[in-house]
């Protein structure tokens, strides 16, 4: 069997996770990692795999079946997505929800013109959570959706704290509120305000001599990020932050609570949850499964931009259709 | 927009659920119900819809886009599946796990010859639970699967009790054992015996003068059904059985617990669960979503037998692709 030949663009946390994920599957193979850094400064965990300057990626068009784009959604992917979609089958984790339709259109145009296949916005949200929201809503048209995130680190909120005057470093945890989750799980179909769904807990390293009371107030009153939530601020040392808060756990819950029957009296709860020790590694594993699918869809002539809504689940698996039916259906 | 025109074969609990589910969706329409009973004895909840003898179904080939087969897996579907797959696009809930590969092959042959599309074994297990098992295994190749069922009524086990000498009527609940579920949820990757996973609770109406001690022993020692489980037997009156145990709740949990990373030290838990007030109504709602998909796949020239592994999720929804991306991704 020919292995799926994969390239990685960007060797940050997700890129490293993709490298590890490829080693977990016998049908995938890492060909090269492409970086903006000096390739000699990048040391991979996989012996024999090349590190190449990103500007030379085009030379690998015949050696790579699918590129996994591991850059960030703010500045990397809006450029790299369309650029690489015109040369390779790609998979990415573009996660700026509001900009997905525009990003989809741009990538689709580039991929269609090149007869390539791009699966965008893959991961767990957007990604698995989106799939459950879509599937559950199709099954239970009369009902309510609930998504809770956490407990986990929000990079966006951590960054926002770091921009506060007097803050040297910070980590923010998004925490779903147990009572709200339980109320949904028990079919009460509650109306929940922003404050009732999530709590924000911040671990902050202040600069020496900084006004901690002012930092705390500045965080708690920050519009959009914190003002609508109950927020807890802890001041800790840089050492404590590093030793207790440098892992990247995350997770969350998606619920659909809906009614059925002629008199719509019967209630049903669909619940999907993730508890992840490492957000980037889990995201990377999802990306590799969809990389397999992108190559297969491309071979079948299915070109353009795709999302998790468009990919038959069997395409994600290294197993044959007969094995899937026999063992997992 | 043209509505999806649906026919129902068999007007039992699932057939009634399908009728209700069709009314919940603005893009689906019930054309007729087909029955082996005297059509005049069947009263639908939907005004104006015909009840037709099943032998006349073929006359509706041009009026129905998809037939939903609502018969049982033991005797109805093995005959009806291939028969109707040769005339209509069909969806069914064939759930005899061990016989699915054979059933798939038979239906596939009939559907391929007729250029029709058949989506088989749709529901929640097989169905949604299978999808989560497959998806989770593709994402976390190194890990363990766990499926727990219940709390819910098992028709097979209830029937087995009813065959015990001296038993007039009975209902059996399959109950997942909390400690086992918690242990999996907490990432302990336990090895669980049959007895450690589920408990069986039976509500039995004895015939007058029957030997209750013997009935209880006969149930508890029944091979395959009860001998490998801890089983609780309650004797109740027929009235009590009817008033307290005539609903059809069910549900369960699917877990994947797996490791990632270069040193595979990070653990991840994927959990999917259902809590259903009405097993047949929920199954019916899943069937109707896949009926929509069967028609669409057929229009696109995708013929033969399909399973939940083969259907892109967007095909289940009445919403447009743009709406799905904007609202749910």
UniProtKB/TrEMBL annotation, chains A, B:
What EC number(s) has UniProt assigned to this enzyme? 1.4.1.16
User: Pfam families from the xrefs?
Assistant: DAPDH_C
Substrates-to-products reaction catalysed: meso-2,6-diaminopimelate + NADP(+) + H2O = (S)-2-amino-6-oxoheptanedioate + NH4(+) + NADPH + H(+)
State the InterPro entries in the record. Answer: Diaminopimelate_DH_Ddh (IPR010190), Meso-DAP_DH_C (IPR032094), NAD(P)-bd_dom_sf (IPR036291)
UniProt-annotated binding residues for NADP(+): 11-14, 35-37, 70-73, 93-95, 122-126
Signal sequence bounds:
none
- Binding of substrate, residues: 149, 174, 200, 250, 279
Any one GO biological process? diaminopimelate biosynthetic process
List the molecular function annotations (GO) for this entry: diaminopimelate dehydrogenase activity; nucleotide binding
All copies of the Meso-diaminopimelate D-dehydrogenase C-terminal domain together span 123-278
Which pathway or pathways does this protein act in? Amino-acid biosynthesis; L-lysine biosynthesis via DAP pathway; DL-2,6-diaminopimelate from (S)-tetrahydrodipicolinate: step 1/1
Q: Does the keyword Cytoplasm apply?
A: no
Keywords on record: Amino-acid biosynthesis, Diaminopimelate biosynthesis, Lysine biosynthesis, NADP, Nucleotide-binding, Oxidoreductase
Concerning its family, UniProt says: Belongs to the diaminopimelate dehydrogenase family.
- State whether it acts alone or in a complex, and with which partners, per the record: Homodimer.
What is the name of this protein? Answer: Meso-diaminopimelate D-dehydrogenase
């Amino acid at each position: 069997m020919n292995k799926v030949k994969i390239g990685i663009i960007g060797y940050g946390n997700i890129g490293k996770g993709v490298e590890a994920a490829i080693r977990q599957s016998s049908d995938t193979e890492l060909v090269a990692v492409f970086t903006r850094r000096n390739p000699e400064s990048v040391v991979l965990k996989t012996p024999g795999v090349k590190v190449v300057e990103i500007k030379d990626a085009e030379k690998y068009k015949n050696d790579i079946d699918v590129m996994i784009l591991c850059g960030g959604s703010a500045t990397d992917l809006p450029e790299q997505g369309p650029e690489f979609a015109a040369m390779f089958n790609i998979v990415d984790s573009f996660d700026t929800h509001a900009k997905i339709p525009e990003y989809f259109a741009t990538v689709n145009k580039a991929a269609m013109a090149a007869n390539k296949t791009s699966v965008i916005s893959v991961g767990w949200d957007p990604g698995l959570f989106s799939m459950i929201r879509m599937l559950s809503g199709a099954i239970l048209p009369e009902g309510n959706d609930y998504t809770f995130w956490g407990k986990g680190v929000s990079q966006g909120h951590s960054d926002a704290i770091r921009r506060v005057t007097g803050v040297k470093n910070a980590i923010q945890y998004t925490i779903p509120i147990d009572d709200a989750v339980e109320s949904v799980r028990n079919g009460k179909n509650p109306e929940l305000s922003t404050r009732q769904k999530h709590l924000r807990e911040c671990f902050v390293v202040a600069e020496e001599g900084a006004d901690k009371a002012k930092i705390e107030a500045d965080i708690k009153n920050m519009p959009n990020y914190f003002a609508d939530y109950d927020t807890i601020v802890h001041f800790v040392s840089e050492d404590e932050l590093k030793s207790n808060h440098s892992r990247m756990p995350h997770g969350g819950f998606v619920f659909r609570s809906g009614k059925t029957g002629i008199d719509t009296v019967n209630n049903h709860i669909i619940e999907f949850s993730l508890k992840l020790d490492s957000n980037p590694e889990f995201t990377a594993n999802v990306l590799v499964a969809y990389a397999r699918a992108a190559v297969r869809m491309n071979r079948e002539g299915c070109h353009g931009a795709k999302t998790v809504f468009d990919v038959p689940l069997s395409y994600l698996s290294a197993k044959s259709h007969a094995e899937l039916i026999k063992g997992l259906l």
